[in-house]
Predict the 3D structure of the following.
Amino acid sequence: MLVEPRVASVDRVGDRFVVQLAAVVTDDTRIDRDCNCAREIDGHRHACVAKSQTRQCVAVGQDPYGRWTPPPKDPDRYETAFTEVFEGPGTHEAIFEFQSAPSGRCPPGNPYESKGRGAVAFTLR
């Protein structure tokens, strides 16, 4: 998984800075859009709450056995943005974290499951 964060725009309003942070995420399989907003700004974690906990497997609760054909790759691209407000100038860092094809919810899982992390540092003057 590739996570590419960037500063999309900066607007100064008095002593405040309104910063639009964006991230482009690409992976071999579908990127989880229900719970992808875990991010960190200057060491303060902003965690998300999952909107749904859907299961996408036939044999929920059963152990896998026998032959198994993995699902096909399903390449995905996701672009998202967040707005943050900073009081005064300074140097800041934003960290974005995403995951795709979470297999921990049901067997036998998705062999393309992955997690990605990207950081961007910026200075406001």
